[in-house]
Amino acid sequence: MTTQNCYLCDRTASSVPSESWKKFISCETCGEYEITEELQHFTLSLFGEKNKYVLSGLCRELKETEQDVPCLTTQNLNELMSRSPVPDMEDINAKLEKLLAAVKRKSDHFGKIVELQRDGDYPLAYAKNDKEFFAFIDQLVAMKLLELKEEDNRTKFVMLSASCWAHPSNKMDNEESSTEIGFKV
Questions:
Q1: What's the sign of the alpha-carbon dihedral 51, 52, 56, 58?
Q2: Strands 31-36 and 71-72: what pairing?
Q3: Is 57 left (phi over 0), alpha (psi -120 to 50) or beta?
Q4: Chain-centroid distance, C-alpha 106
């Protein structure tokens, strides 16, 4: 195992050659993924910085929902960007729903306080950056779906509100590993 920068967020990650033509990457921010040698050297930079956050969100969500590790190749990038569970990147409500589902996954009981890091958890909402991520948290607080317990410049400590937690449709479908919580935001 070696240390290198993540191809999606440029933060420190671990890498292990998984086959002669690809690497397995484990990143605290992005989750886990495999990436082909061709993509490592060429296409990801050509693909554009503006789209890396989508792949980061997908990889993080798949890890947190215990689904298969994706393999990023030159042939499947567009498919990965448009597959489920990736939300419509222009749909703010869909991104808010993703963030709410992530907080729910981290909340095993009512009153559980969840720590959300500005620079490490933005993929949970498929946010373009940390500013958009904190704006999403603020919006969910304004909508009274989250309660803000404490914050500083780098971290927000939140919990699901009683109305969000108790809503009858606030259930995750574990059989299908769905991230849909059924609560319209």
A1: positive
A2: parallel
A3: alpha
A4: 13
Amino acid at 91: D
End-to-end Cα separation, the chain, in angstroms: 42
Going from the C-alpha of 156 to that of each of 77, 116, 121, 137, the distances in angstroms are 32, 5, 11, 8
Alpha-carbon span 53 to 30, nearest angstrom: 9
pLDDT at 173: 41
Higher pLDDT, 70 or 164: 70
DSSP bridge partners of 150:
157
Which residue in this structure is represented by tokens 């086959």? 19
Question: CA 32 to CA 56: how far, in whole Å?
Answer: 9
Antiparallel, parallel or unpaired: β 71-72 and 114-117: unpaired
Task: Answer yes or no: is pLDDT of 25 > 90.
Answer: yes
Q: What is the CATH number of domain 92-176?
A: 1.10.10.10
Q: Note the pLDDT of residue 179.
A: 39
How many residues would you count in the chain? 185
- Please state, as a whole number, how many other Cβ atoms lie within 10 Å of the Cβ of residue 38: 14
Domain ranges of the chain: 2-82, 92-176
The pair of structure tokens assigned to 101 is 């589902």
Q: Which residue has the tokens 């317990």?
A: 149
8 A C-beta contact, residue 47 and residue 35:
no
